[in-house]
Amino acid sequence: MDLSSTQDGEERSDPASKSGFAQGGQPTANSLVGNSLVGNSLVGNVASEGTASGVETPSPESSEIARLWAARSKSGPLARPESTPVKQLKRAALAQPDEYTEVFRRDRLGFVLLLVPAVWMLVDAAFSSWKGWRPTAAIESVVLGALGLYCVAVTLLLCFRFGQRMLAGLGVPLGVLLIVASGGLFAGQEVFAAEPSADAHLRRPQLKQVRYPSPELITGVQGPVTYSTNTYGVRGTAIPRSSEALRVLCVGGSTTDCVYLDDTGTWQSHLERELEALGGNRPIWIGSAGFGDVRNTNHLEFVSGAEVLGRVQAVVFLVGMNDFLWALRGDSTEASRQPAWSRSLALAGLVPRERHRQQSRNGEHLRFRRDRRKRAVIQDELPDLTEDLDRFGEQVAQLIELSRERGVLPIFVTQPALWWEGLDERASRRLGLGELGDAKYLSPRALREGLDLYNQRLLAETERAGVTCVESEDMVGLDEFYYDDCHFNERGAEAMGGLLARSLAAELLPRKFGQ
Q: What are phi and psi of 140, to 5 degrees?
């Protein structure tokens, strides 16, 4: 056989290249990776060819190597190198499983921790919205929008490699920091949500705020108006130290507070000026400790523990409205529907509010209340108020007793309101209160009937205790006195102050000046 030629006639210069073995009987590299290994038996082909060419048969060791390569070739073509990021990540996981698992866990943990505060706040807002809350201040809308964008941004980080590295490195510490900070934010709202303490009627000492009531929403009020307090947190001027001055403190809810009236336009300021004129210009001081949405339960705590009561000779209570409204709606107050973060102290300067209900600087919250009432079902049947009326009467008696124990003269005033059966359509559009627990609203007639029950119980308790109670029945239903259901505008405050001055002059002036 001619070793220099092949079966198809090609010339070969190296006899060993055909046999696949170098001199000495050892297989070459080509014999192991060439065509003779693919689809053929290396042992059989090489042995037969080697015998035919007179070349020595390979050793057992070489045959074993050939057998292994043949088995490898039968399993299919060799896999291509893994070069994609996913495959590199898999190789890294196989090479260092513990480190990979730790990174994987850290970026997911950071993602969850970063989202927890934002998701909680959004869920809280969604639940409050379902209960009827709507953002009435610009900062609340900004916060909600920022929370949504924040959640989207954190989610996008998890979709990219650089974001995953950021979450794995900074996600956990930043997430813990945000959770701690949000915990303080939510804890701060408890100051607003909790029942007022003994000094809850008092605001921050030396407070001065300027409000801009909307002429469209708050009719009969010219803005801007100034709201200021003295060193005790009482609305009014400094309490005179002279023993010759008559000093009177007025206690009640928002109808006493008059947040949208200027310091010089509240019914307390009119009462002060009227009494001074009737008393021969002797010094008289009238202050206000009114606070929105508080009721007799809170008044009792205030009278029993407030330091400022030791500086006055008489206290005027304008009560009944909030007790009535709380009885209608149960505990489902607007504050309970307001998101926790919105009631936080951190937003106290940005979201103007009362302790139990939010009020905007221009009265925008009134628009929401009125729209909500317009869409609701109006009910003309008054619910059973017997239990709450009995509690209201007992608390009035306790207020009288506590006031006397502290050496001050208690005086009461019945609560007037716009409600009455013959209210016209124009005035009816101002209404926004009277909500029932099932999201229905009472008609003006039913509201008038219910408030009358509280006024009558107040008259009965004061008569039994021998205490003066001024009736304000003449102011009921006169729409020129109110900008909504029961809150006085400028004319209403002037009328209320004059009414009280004429009724109380004979009792207050002799008490101090001996007239």
A: -65, -40
Dump pLDDT digits (tens) for 41-51.
Answer: 434 443 444 44
**Helix, strand, coil percent values for the chain (each to nearest 5):** 55, 10, 35
Tokens of 514: 């001996």
Print burial letters for 259-297: b (CB count within 10 Å at least 16), e (below 16): bbbbbebbbbbbbbbbbbebbeeeebbbbbbbbbbbbbe
- Collapsed DSSP state (helix, strand, coil) of residue 62: helix
* Rounded Cα gap, residues 214 and 207, in angstroms: 22
Assess whether the previous peptide bond of 444 is cis (omega < 30° from 0). no
Contacts of 114 (CB under 8 A, 6+ apart): 154, 167, 171, 174, 175, 178
* Axis-axis angle for helices 386-405, 444-465 (nearest 10): 40
Q: Closest Cα partner for 476 from 501, 503, 451?
A: 451
Q: Which of 84-88, 104-108, 169-173, 410-414 has the lowest average pLDDT?
A: 84-88
Per residue in 75-113, pLDDT (tens digit) is 454 444 445 555 555 555 455 444 445 555 677 888 888
**Can you give the length of the chain in residues?**
515
| Angle formed at CA 389 by CA 482 and CA 333, multiple of 5 degrees | 60
- Per-residue pLDDT averaged across 196-221, rounded? 82
CA distance 27 to 19: 9
d(CA 132, CA 211): 26
Cβ–Cβ contacts within 10 Å for residue 26, how many? 13
Cα within 13 Å of Cα(203), Cβ side: 23
Mean per-residue pLDDT for 23-46? 42
Of 332, 325, 318, the C-alpha closest to 288 is: 318
